[in-house]
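Recall from the previous lesson that a structure prediction takes nothing but the amino acid sequence as input. Here we apply that procedure to Major facilitator superfamily (MFS) profile domain-containing protein from Ogataea parapolymorpha. The sequence below is the only information supplied.
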Amino acid sequence: MTTEEKTPAHVSQDAATSLESGLMPEISKVDNVAVEKKDAVLSKKMYLINNAIDEIGFTWYHAKLFCIAGYGYSVDSQMEMIQSSVHKYVAYQFGTAFPIDTEIAYAGLIIGSIFWGFGGDLIGRRLCFNSSLLLTSMFGFLAGGMSSMSTYCIFVALANFSAGGNLAMDVAVFLEYLPFKYQYLNTVMAAWWGVGQTTTNLLAWAFLPNFSCSSADYCPSSINRGWRYTWYVNSAIVLASGLLRLFWFKLDETPKFLVSVGRDAEAVENLQKLARKYNRKCSLTLEQLQECGDISSEYYTASEDGWDPKKILSIVRHHCKILYQDKINAWSTSLILLSWLFIGISYSVFYNFLYIYIASHGGDTGSSTYIVYRNSSLANFVGIFGPIVAGYIILLPRVGRRYTMSFGALATMAILFGYTTVRTASGDAGFSSATYFFINIYYGCLYAYTPEVLPAQARGTGVGLALVAARVSGAFSPVTYWYGQKSGSSIPIWVCGGIIGSLGIISALLPFEPSKQRSV
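The prediction returns the following tokens.
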């Protein structure tokens, strides 16, 4: 076989020469260069980085990263779950009716998505990765100790702000170290989302039924400590994870980020360090990267210009332009953001109105607080296995990420419409478990797909924008519920169920299939 026959068409002549001379390992996989086509030099360098990562293979470092980054998923879901669990008892104690604390929590998540997502592309993945959990736990402890709704809202907002970018950073960090052969694990890692929800739900089940007041008529703090205990224990778990990240795992900056900002020497050193630690081969040299040339972008990290605000805004605009650099990337980015927008509003609104609909038709899905939390814990536990099954399905021939998402969305729509026939607590347990299982098949793929098809220079920005889309739309669900429950209309559940089904069509229209190409 000649060099030309075994070298992907997009690989540069320099790279082909390196391969021919034995400096670069033979790799048959093709990179998704369409997302970096505006910078051919960066595409060549990413090809070399991917080759080095594949050459090193899967190590104990990757296994630890799977767990420690995966727990970031847990924290993100825990913050949403804890607020929804304790809201009623916080409102009882502080005498509020409108869910202002829930809206404030969404505001924190939205701002956090922007800050940490954009920040990951500005200052690097490592600092964001290491600091977010520590800040989340600190503010979570303070939220649990507040004595008024106003101060509670402040620290809930700060805790959610700190956790809000975990998804953006965790998926990016794990993906940028992951060999192509194991890229399906990026989908499986979403199982940690269910772990987080189950953990918080179990905490709420343990504390809220036993240490909470029963109504707003008389609810002093002395008989309403359950929501505080839930916050304290949850924050302690997050703190333990943050300390593990800082002192046990000790993340090095990802090579793909370093190359995307012109720090080639550090990228090579980090990969060589990883190879040495686990006695693996790494053929990549600094000379190989330098032979590719200099990346065309003059936008590196914000710190190079002393954190000048104008420069930071210029870099952010540049990263946003990268997401829409041509027609195929604009189409891909737009469909991804639309997917997150739709799932953010439809799923939460459906669940809010579902129980109103069931009750109005003579159903009783929760005769006691114990039954409600039992069913919720069971459903969240079953949901853990959705991404694991998705990780298997995406490997099937002619299926991949896109059609797995389509299957998950359409199956969820069918289950949700069937859910409207439930009239008993046991039926609620069964349908809610099935719903969490199938929606997490969709979620798991969407979480993984989003960073996989985004260019490295703007990966954090793109994931951050996706999270903003989901959380801005999700922020309307408490308002919709507040005003909609008075009318008793069932229209929202049918509309939202249809929107979830439409995600199956959107998934099939996505232009990239990461199961066939390596992410750059």
